[in-house]
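Fill in residues.
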């Protein structure tokens, strides 16, 4: 593949436009070198099944959720992520789940499919301990042939490539009425594909997260939470968020991530069986804020068991069923 150059015949505006893309490409080099790293989610509290299989079935009701995340909204062919999660509690303290993730970024296309299994232990009447196992694979494709060359000479490196990587994950969750603590490694094994055309690899991710409920009044509950992520060979990242809940129907909140990103979110529960959430994320780094590389994220969820608004995938306010309490 030929090196990227600035052509002399370009106008100053064209050159500045290309420099903007070169700068973004430089910032995203780790994505190309370690292309299979897991996405950040502003609404991570509602997508914990992705990183921890112990959350499968932990809500005491069957749910189906969809998340769509569009990054760098001012840039063409920027990263886009879609997530579909199914979670259901089964008999004998067992929970099952399925998750599908689609990541698209320029010429790269990654699909991830996993099946989750969880088992619940009742530590006390209000405190549960969940163990989870995750198994599946990621499917990577890169259509390098779609890259535009500056001349008509055929480049043998410009061809479509693909790979399939099976993997397994583990996780644990402690869940009580007013708090939750989660630890997980959703992909236990690092996989590498190296050849003359491209380098692609899975890195081991480790997650530690938690949250609590702080009752302010009968109508308002403050819900702070955090998530920390360590990726092999990369610096550790952290995110903290604070949501204000009104009558378990409406939540508004804000968050901050250690990579100089912040944002706000809104979450609404409708008719006890449908939830909708939205998050807007922006970069506060003074060197990047003018580029307009902000993100949108939308979350939709259907609850099939006719549960209560208090049942969230964040697993904050566990409702104890009659068979569990013995009443």
């Amino acid at each position: 593949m030929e090196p990227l150059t600035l052509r002399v015949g370009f106008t100053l505006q064209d050159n500045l436009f290309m420099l903007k893309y070169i700068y973004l490409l430089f910032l995203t080099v780790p994505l190309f070198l370690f292309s299979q790293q897991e996405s950040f989610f502003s609404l991570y509290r509602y997508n914990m099944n992705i990183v921890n299989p112990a959350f499968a079935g932990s809500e005491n009701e069957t749910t189906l959720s969809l998340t769509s995340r569009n990054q760098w909204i001012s840039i063409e062919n920027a990263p886009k992520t879609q997530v579909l999660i199914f979670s259901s509690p089964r008999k004998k303290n067992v929970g099952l789940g399925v998750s599908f993730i689609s990541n698209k970024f320029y010429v790269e296309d990654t699909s991830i499919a996993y099946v989750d299994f969880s088992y619940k232990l009742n530590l006390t009447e209000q405190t549960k301990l969940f163990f989870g196992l995750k198994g599946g694979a990621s499917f990577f494709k890169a259509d390098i042939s779609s890259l535009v060359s500056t001349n008509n000479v055929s480049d043998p490196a410009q061809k479509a490539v693909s790979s399939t990587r099976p993997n397994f994950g583990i996780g644990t969750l402690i869940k009580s009425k007013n708090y939750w603590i989660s630890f997980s490694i959703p992909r236990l094994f690092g996989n590498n594909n190296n050849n003359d055309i491209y380098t692609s690899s899975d890195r081991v991710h480790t997650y530690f997260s938690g949250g609590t409920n702080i009752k302010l009044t009968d109508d308002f509950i403050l819900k702070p939470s955090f998530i920390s992520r360590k990726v092999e060979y990369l610096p550790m990242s952290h995110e903290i968020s604070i949501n204000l809940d009104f009558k378990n129907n409406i939540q508004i909140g804000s968050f901050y991530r250690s990579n100089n990103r912040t944002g706000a979110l809104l979450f609404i529960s409708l008719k006890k069986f449908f939830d909708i959430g939205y998050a807007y994320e922006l970069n506060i780094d003074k060197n990047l804020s003018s580029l307009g590389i902000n993100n949108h994220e939308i979350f939709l969820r259907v609850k099939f068991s006719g549960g209560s608004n208090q049942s969230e995938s964040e697993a904050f306010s566990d409702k104890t069923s009659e068979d569990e309490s013995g009443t």
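The first helix runs from residue 12 to 27.
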